[in-house]
Each structure stands twice: as structure tokens, then as C-alpha cells.
Amino acid sequence: MSSSHESHEAGGHDGGEHGHGLGAYFAVFGALLVGTWLTVWIAEKDLGAWNTPVALGIACTKATLVVLYFMHVRASSKVVWLAAAIGFVFLVILLGFTISDYATREWLEIYSDPLLSR
Amino acid sequence: MNATPNAASLRAPRDNYITTDYSWRSWLLTVDHKRIGILYLLSVTGFFFLGGLFAVLLRLELATPQGDLVQAETYNKLFTMHGLVMIFFFLVPSIPGVLGNFFVPIMIGAKDMAFPRLNLLSWYVYMIGGAVSFLAIVMGGVDTGWTFYAPYSSTYSNSNVAVTAVGVFITGFSSILTGLNILVTVHKMRAPGMTWFRMPLFVWAHYATSLIMVLGTPVLAITILLLALERLFHIGIFDPKLGGDPVLFQHLFWFYSHPAVYIMILPAMGVISELVAAFSRKRIFGYSFVAFSSLAIAVLGFLVWGHHMFLSGQSVYAGVVFSVLSFLVAIPSAVKVFNWAATLYKGSVQLSTPMMYVLGFLGLFTIGGLTGLFLACLGLDVHVHDTYFVVAHFHYIMVGGAVMAFLGGLHYWWPKMFGKMYPEALGKFSAVVVFIGFNLTFFPQFLLGYLGMPRRYHAYPDEFAVLNVLSSAGASILGIGYLLPMVYLIWSLRYGKDAVQNPWGAKGLEWEKAPTPPPTFNFESTPVVTQEAYAYADDLPADERAEVRYV
Amino acid sequence: MSDSHGGAHVANLAHHFEDLEQQREAHTLGMWAFLITEILFFGGLFAAYVVYRTAYPEAFANASNQLDARLGGINTAVLIGSSFTMVLAVHAAERRRKRAIFGWLWATVVLGAVFLGVKYVEYSHKWEHHLIPGPNFLFEGAPGGSEQLFFALYFAMTGLHAFHMVIGAGVLIWLSVLALKGRFDLPGRNAVEMAGLYWHFVDLVWIFLFPLLYLLGRHA
Q1: Each residue of C118-168: pLDDT tens digit?
Q2: In this structure, are residues C189 and C36 in contact, taking their beta carbons and an 8 Å threshold?
Q3: Using the beta-carbon criterion (under 8 Å), do C36 and B215 form an inter-chain contact?
Q4: Can you spell out the DSSP letters for B333-345?
Q5: Subunits with 3+ C-beta pairs closer than 8 A to B
Q6: Mind listing the domains of chain C with CATH numbers?
Q7: Phi-psi bin for B109: left (phi > 0), alpha (psi -120 to 50), beta?
Q8: Residue C171 sits at the chain B interface (C-beta within 8 Å)
Q9: Among B276, B281, B543, C174, whose CB has the most other CB atoms within 10 angstroms?
Q10: Can you tell me the distance from the alpha carbon of B481 to that of B485, in angstroms, rounded to the nearest whole number?
């Protein structure tokens, strides 16, 4: 699908151009639209506690597709992989430790927490 | 590579990064990392003395138990602005902005930072942030404490919170840009042969610092933005009346601000590594341990922020986890201190001015670090929380550590930066003055805090008077210790002896390969690195090596 | 910046780089480092969201049902479409086809404008229904409790996101002009690719914002 002429210039990153073929872009575009539809469709169903995890799972899948293909990380050097990962790792640290406080405040009964006792 | 018509003239002593162009324009629009370093040097020095002025007023007020010099409201503003100026406008940009900017590219054999224009932009952003914060000071100041704790800052304070917050917000982006630039520079700009494990530890320390700047500072930015929204529109994010939680502000704030402590101390540690090796004439002991301990401190620094919140209503269970993780930070810190001490062992130690600052740093940082362990103890922290014990602890790290290292590094690299030697005897004298003044100022504060004197009050009971007088007296000595270097360093620019390329006989590309002062592109040709950092004594004949050791 | 140092340099190679490859990698890494800061910038808002949603699940679900999921869904598709046209612009830039670059950049800008237009419609609905946090906030006729927190976060998150889109659209327009001027005719200019990374990141944020803000209470 990708046009093969005119490639392999500019120093030849990773032995060629850094993008993916047009076919991959179309496929990812389609998958993202399907993912969006799926998110809306499944949000109407009552999955109990699972609605949010499923929604986030779909969102993460879509995000991964964008990062790997649209943002070319799949064809990039290791340090770009690292850079792409490290932001999310520290985001998890920020969220995780903050939640760890709120999730455990009620464990101690003498604690009357105005935020959680409502 | 550099076979240009200019190459010959670069070699002439006159043509260096300073003499290449004297116009204002050439300084204000420069993209040369060295000139930007000098711009930072001028501005952080200005802010240091502004912050110092606030400190003088604080110590004057505290010289007597009564609130006689200033009222409580004024005092609140003074300590707030002292903290703000010193942290955001001096400590955070000082070593990375000045020494890091100047020497990271040279140390790895690059012609410049990866993004020279971003580098200049970071200085302008810093200056704009500084100007806005200065405006807030002129408008009457701010009294929330440098931490901007909600709901005081969001709802109740009548001072210029919004303007100050905007200033800090803007300055944060300068920090982000510096960090981003150093990260990419270290990754992508190293000279041939400059492998990761041949890099000077100063560079490793700056790499770790930059990681924190890039990962932490944006959270400060969004926190300040939320604070501004809360203050201006009262949206309830931090307001318990509307269901919000002020403690969330503290979570977000300390997610940046605890790692920010390591933004301030890690570059200082990098300076110390260079100085210890250079003035012990020895390879640094345990190179890779020191290098990785910087990264370990950077990462662990993000996992401990809750230790600022043991008494803020945070869950006790989260407190336990944060306490344990805080203790872990002691490990990489101790690795560094022990390795520096081991480097000194049997080295041919030369007590020049920078080395005096190093020895000061080692002692003071150790005291500051160990008292940090007291504070990380859930139980003990109840006793000393928000007392002068905390004040003394972080001043031992920030002033006894970071400022000492900044001064030591400034003396060490001064000949390279300006081509002039500073007066050595005066240098040693003022290093001693700083050390004595520092300890006299801050050691009594440990005692005061342990006895129960709370921080952030303008008056205190009579029984605290003696220790406070000692502290204020020490502060005046410390002030002289800081003024002296400023005077003689400026004096040396005109009257100092000319410096040779490598006055210390030190290792490193900046001494061995770059002329003094360096030309605009740092080297006459791209250096090729063939040995590791700190290869002291390797190239000396055996008999000379022996002499070096036993002098 | 003065690029005059050294005579035998390649066009588009800044003086302090050795070759175009080094320059390209430095730009890419720098852009990613910037995107890391963006992740954590939004991260603070996500932290607030998680805390308050966990604390007030019902209020958040009720408040979320006030949003128009249909418009949100359409906007999601529009934004994904703009990401697709953006990637085609990058694809064209790699082949240095200036007209294609111009066209796809403008397609992206137009889709971005559609997104912002829909956003404007949504915001004005909220304005009419007193759903703007602050002293005048009303939720179903009563001064809202924690529903207000949802709307505070909704406006903070989508507003910041929209702000990023405005900046991005400005950059894309500027690049489209540069493309017509022939600035991307020689190898070594990867500004379109860098702008693409930014635009995709903005898309990425929305991919999370959409289910977290619009679809909370749909199943109840």
C-alpha cells in the first residue's frame, strides 16, 4: 500500500522511513471508530461494577493504537518507547498513591472523614 | 568538520564566547548555552539577595521575643516571600540554570544544548515569571506560605495569591524547558566515545534532575491552575463546604514539591562528585553506584510525598507506606556520602576553596539528611511537625547542601567561565565564614524545634530567646559569608590573575579539551573520548603518582 | 538562530548537530519529553476526578447524564478523523508533497474547528441550564452539592483540552503556510511530524475524557 518511491532518504532512520503504510493508518482509523461505537454501545448495558473497567479497557486499547501507529512509536527507537511509557508510569504513581490515601481513610473508625462519610 | 575560515581565529586567545560580541543584543538574543548560563547567573544572584533580604528581616524580628519590628501579617508575608523567592527563583534554577547550562554540553563534548532557542526561551520564561512574582511582592506580597495550602490560599487569604501563583506557574515552564533540554542533550548530543558510563557524575545528576523537572513540574502547574480557578470562580475543588477536599491540594502540590527538593539537591550532589574527585586526585569511588543513586533518588522522590501530610488528615495507612518509602531515600543518599568519603580516603586532598565547600557540604548534608529520618518517623513527626526542627532540617539540606555546593562549584569553574582566578586566601576565609555562620544560624533551630517552638510565628516565649539570638547572630555572619564571594568574584573579573586552561589539573573535557574561556562552539574540534571520567593518576608516571599520594 | 557555523553543512541541519539523523532523533525525543509533561499536566485533573468520583459516585453519574452523549460521541469520531488526516499530512510530509501536506493539514484544522464548534454548542447549553460551577450553579433547580464538582472537572478538563486544540490548530495553519512556501521540500524538516505527535496526543486525551465524562450514568 505504501508508496515505495522516494523512500530511504534523510539518513535512513531504522533502515527506511519511520512511518507505517497507508494501509495501517486506514486500519487503525477504522478500529478507532469501531472502538468509539463499542464504548457508547456498552455504556448502555448494565455491567454492575464492570462498566468503568470495560470503558477504560477500550480507551486504553484505542490509546495504544494511536501511540503505536499514528505516533509511530512502533517503528521508533527504544528511547522513544521508554519516553512513551514513563509518562504513563508516573501518572499511575500519582493516581495510585493519591487513591491509597482516600481508599484507606475509613479503615480507622475514629476517623470521621467528611469527604467519605456523606 | 570544522575546517572553516574561522577555525584559526577561534584559536586566538581573544576570541571566546565572551569576546566574540559585546553588544547587548548579542547577549539578550544569544543561543549560546554558556551565555545563557551567565544570564542565569546574574538573575539567580539577584533573586538570592532578594530572598536573603527577606531572611534578614525575619531574623531581625526574631532577635527579640516580642513582635516589635513587624506585625504578624507582615511577618507572614516575609517568610512566604523568602520561601517563594529562594525555592522557585533561586534553588531550582541555580545549579541547573547556571552550571548545568554552562557545563553539561561541554562535559559531554557537544557544541551546544540540543535546543538552543528553547534554552534562551527558558531564561525569558523564568524572567517573566520572576517579574510577575516581583510585581506581586511590590503590590503588597502574599502570606499563604510558599506551599499555598488550600483553603487558606483559595478562600481566606486577602493577599496577592493569584498574581504570585501566576508567577510561579510561568516559572515552572522555564524549569520544564531546562529539564527537557538537558534530557535530550544527554541522550543525543554526546561526543564520539562518550558512553553513558564515561559521563561525569555531574551530568548523571543533571539527567536525574531533569527527569524530575519534566515529570513533576506539570503537576505543580495544574495544581496552581486549579487553585486559581478555585480562588477566582469558587468551583469547590478544594472547598469542603462544596464537597471538595483541601488535602487533595496537598497531594497534588507535594507530588511536585517533594521531588522538587531533589531538583535542588541532586545537581548539588553532582557538583560535589566533580569537586571531590578533582581535589582528592582520585577516581571517584564506586562510580556506577553514585550514578545510579542519582536516578534512584529521582524515582524514589516521587513515592514519598505523603510524609509532608502525616498530620494533615491523610489516612494513617497511607502514612505508614509513605514513612517506609521515605526511609528508603536514605539508602541512595548514604551511598553517595559514603562514596565521597571513600574517595577522600588516601586521596591527595588539596584544601582549596572549592574543597572547603565540599567538606562543609558533606557534614551539613549528613546532618540534614539524618534529621530527615526523624521527620519520616510517624511518631516523632507528631512532636516536631511544623516546628523549627523542620526549618533547620531543610535549611541544612538546601543551604548547607545546595548553596554550599553552588558556591563550591562556582569557585571551581569560575576560571573556566571567565578566564580569571579568584583570590584563594579570601575564598578560603569566606568558606569558613559561611560554615560557621550557617551552623550558628541553623543548629539552634534544631534545639528550638525540639523544645517546641512552632515555625511561622513572629513572636515567641522568653525561654526561646537565647537560642534565637544565637540564630540571628549566626545569620549576620552568614550574610557576610555570602557577600564576600560576590565582591571578590566580581573584583576578580577585572583584577584577578589570568587563568590557564586547566588551573586545577583536573580531568574532564571542560578542563582538558576546552580552551579558557571556551569559544562559542566549545571545542576547536569535536573531542573523541577514549577513557572514563576521573582517570586521575593513570597518566602519571609511577614515581610522580607516589608523590601525589603522599604529599 | 545563526546557522552560519561551518561551511559544508547540509541544508536544514542546525550547526550543533552532526547529521540530520541526530537532529531528527533529538527533535522526536524532545517532543516526547514535552508530551510526558502534558500527560502529567492532565494527570493532576485525572487525580482529582478519580478522588471525587469515588467519593460521590451517584452525584457524578447524575451530573454526567446532563451531558449530551450523542454530541460527545460525534465529537469523538470527528477528532479521530482529524487524527487520521493528520497522519496523512505526516505521510505526505515524509514524501515532501507540499500540496498534499497543505491539504491534509487543512482537513485536520477543519475537523478540529468542527470539534470546537460542537464544544461551543455544548458549553452554551450548560450556560443556559446554570451548570457552570460558581455562585450561580444550579443542579435540577437546587444549589448543587457534589454535582458541582463534576462540572468543575468537566469544564477544567474539556476546557484545557480545547485550549490545546486551539494551539494545535494555530500551529497546523502556520505549518500549512510553510509547506506552500516550500519549507518542507528538502529533507531534514520534521515540523509536521512533531505537530502530528502533539495533535495525536490531544486526541489521546479525548479518548479517555469521552467515556469518563459522558458515559458514566448511561446504564442506570
Answers
A1: 999 999 999 998 888 888 888 877 776 789 999 999 999 999 999 999 999
A2: no
A3: yes
A4: HHHHHHHHHHHHT
A5: A, C
A6: 20-214 (1.20.120.80)
A7: left
A8: no
A9: B276
A10: 7
Q: Positive or negative, the Cα torsion across B473, B479, B485, B487?
A: negative
For chain C, say whether A81 makes contact (Cβ under 8 Å). no
Residues 12-71 of A with CB under 8 A from B: none
Exposed, middle or buried: residue B20 (CB in 10 Å: 0-12, 13-18, 19+)? middle
C-alpha cell at B516: 579558557
- The DSSP output letter for B154 is I
On whether any CB of chain B is under 8 Å from the CB of A80, the answer is no
A24 pLDDT tier (thresholds 50, 70, 90) = very high
Nearest to B361 by CA among B415, B414, B398, B411: B398
Judged on CB neighbours under 10 Å (0-12, 13-18, 19+), C11 is exposed
Tens-digit pLDDT profile for residues B245-294: 999 999 999 999 999 999 999 999 999 999 999 999 999 999 999 999 99
The DSSP result for chain A, as a single string, is ----TT-S-TT-GGGS-SS--HHHHHHHHHHHHHHHHHHHHHHTS--GGGHHHHHHHHHHHHHHHIIIIIT-GGGS-HHHHHHHHHHHHHHHHHHHHHHHHHHHGGGSTT---TTT--
Residue B420's φ and ψ, nearest 5 degrees, are -130, 145
Q: In terms of Cα–Cα distance, which of B166, B134, B171 is closest to B231?
A: B166
The answer to whether residues B100 and B271 touch, using CB atoms and an 8 Å cutoff, is no
Judged by a CB distance cut-off of 8 A, whether residue C143 touches chain B is no
Minimal Cβ distance to B244: which of C25, C149, C155: C149
Q: Please report the DSSP string for C49-111 in residue order.
A: HHHHHHH-HHHHHHHHTTS-HHHHHHHHHHHHHHHHHHHHHHHHHHTT-HHHHHHHHHHHHHH
- Cell 478544594 locates to B238
Torsions phi, psi for B454 (to 5 deg): -75, 155
Chains sharing 3 or more CB pairs under 8 A with chain A: B, C
Q: How far is CA A31 from the centre of its chain?
A: 14
| Claim: this prediction has a pTM higher than 0.90 | yes
Give SS3 for C142.
strand
Per the CB < 8 A criterion, the answer to whether B216 and B300 are in contact is no
